[in-house]
Amino acid sequence: MNFAKILALVAIPLFFFLGAGAPQEEPVVDLxxxxxTIFTGNRSQPWAKAIAIGGxxxxxxxxxxxxxxxxxxxxxxxxxxxRLLLPGFNDSHLHLRDGGFSLTSVNLRGARSEKEFARxxxxxxxxxxxxxxxxxxQWDHEKWPSKSYPNRSAIDGFTExxxxxxxxxxxxxxxxxxxxxxxxxxTASTPNPQGGEIVKDxxxxxxxxxxxDQAITLVSRIIPPPTLQERREAFKAAAxxxxxxxITSVQDITATEDLPLLEEMNRTGDFPLRFNxxxxxxxxxHYRQLLFSPMKEDFKPHTIKIFVDGSLGARTALLFSPYKDxxxxxxxxxxxxxxxxxxxxxxHRGGFQIAAHAIGDRANRMILDAIExxxxxxxxxxxxxxxxxxxxxxNEELHRFQKLGVVASVQPVHLLEDMPWAEKRLGAxxxxxxxxxxxxxxxxxLAFGTDWxxxxxxxxxxxxxxxxxxxxxxxxxxxxxxxxxLQQAVEAYTQGSAxxxxxxxRRGTLAPGYDADIVVLxxxxxxxxxxxxxxxxxxxxxxxxxxxxxxxxxxxxxxERHPAPSAK
Length: 568
Prior knowledge:
Elements: H1 3-10, H2 15-18, E1 31-42, E2 45-54, E3 57-62, H3 64-71, E4 77-79, E5 84-87, E6 89-94, H4 96-102, H5 114-125, E7 137-139, E8 165-168, E9 173-176, H6 178-184, E10 196-200, E11 207-213, H7 217-220, H8 228-244, E12 247-253, H9 259-268, E13 274-280, H10 284-290, E14 303-307, H11 337-349, E15 353-358, H12 361-377, E16 386-389, H13 395-404, E17 407-410, H14 413-418, H15 422-426, H16 436-441, E18 446-448, H17 459-468, H18 486-500, E19 518-521, E20 538-543, E21 546-550
Parallel strand pairs: 1-4, 1-5, 6-12, 7-8, 12-13, 13-14, 14-15, 15-16, 16-17, 17-18
Antiparallel strand pairs: 1-2, 2-3, 5-19, 8-9, 9-11, 10-11, 19-20, 20-21
């Protein structure tokens, strides 16, 4: 852009740049955005018209006139033309490697019947070599007229040469074909593992192919691991897809063997995302083994993921009373108190942050009790433990989050996915579900994520779910008192996630000195109805002051193979 034109656009006389009061040594300015709506997240100045970036940090955010001294040293100046600029989105909970693999795996999320499920799967299997495992899938039987679980008999006919393990959308239930069951040694006499269930035909006693929670590991543990190159490609594809959606940071449940690879990709620039890896501990012994894993100090995880229960979709979320549509069960406990309490205590004493998966009301109570016990025995200021999902909460648990300093790491897109059937599961307890505003009013920090690939990665969906709480096509709002306004939702996706990641002093806010992690959307959502959120497009994604995605010059990367939000 011509410098004279820049001066004319911002209506600043030349003497402003050359006056005696100008700084003697001005920093190099890499980027300036102006003439738009900028939400900074800075409490003292939440809105701005222009922003200057240099050295990977925000140099200035404020008025168009105020940015003028930076213009003469700017390498690039962008006229926003009324567009919206925000802090980059920080996904507080996802499975990045699985997400990368899902971009090239069979996608059954859109199947609307058992027949369509089988048709899509059969067509995909025909493209594979003999012996290749069929994984991922993300099917949802609640979209089918029958609402019945799929059975291995429906897929055995065309998968006899390929073992199959297909996840339900929540990741807490899977369908295995007969070949996979055979390879895993699962028969009618195989007992249920702790925290899991092998679903069996009530007449024959034979496994149906449906595995719940810890039972899934009976098959997953025999799947050949992906090669180093396959993992590298999966992470790269996932990262490119994420930045195209305006995501600048992710918090990932990471396999220990992937840490050296991610460290290398980060060092060489093959991985553009900010990345906080977590480790998962399945037991106290497993946690102790993790402590001896070789990890570079500058890439060492500070968060340990544990599971307390399963999911609502699989009816394995742990409730105080039975499911309305399955009175014989109240869910599954991955841990009982006698194993949960020592595990929480050990992780807490070890100085790690706990990220505890808990969905049901009883599971949330159990983990809050365990955290309170650990804090009482070994006080540790600002341990910042977190509960992942926190979907069903009784009133008496709300204040305990705030009292214990526990972050509510939630995924609003699950609300959209669960809405058609959650009341069938919970009955009147649905009023205790997805209580984002109640948590906020109780003083609890909300951190937004997605749980990708078990839900869409697109932050637009999460923002829409939190603000509208109604189907993508519109309709009645579900528990409207729990809606957030757009600013609150954006803050949960930026500042809240940064806080949960111990990065709030440098990310999630666009103020001088903070990391220049930015997303630019093609329209000002603050002036438009919630439905416009799903139509917005990402024009720029900037990480550490560097443009990593520019919609005008870059073709979109590989996407999830289901309809985009704007098309729904």
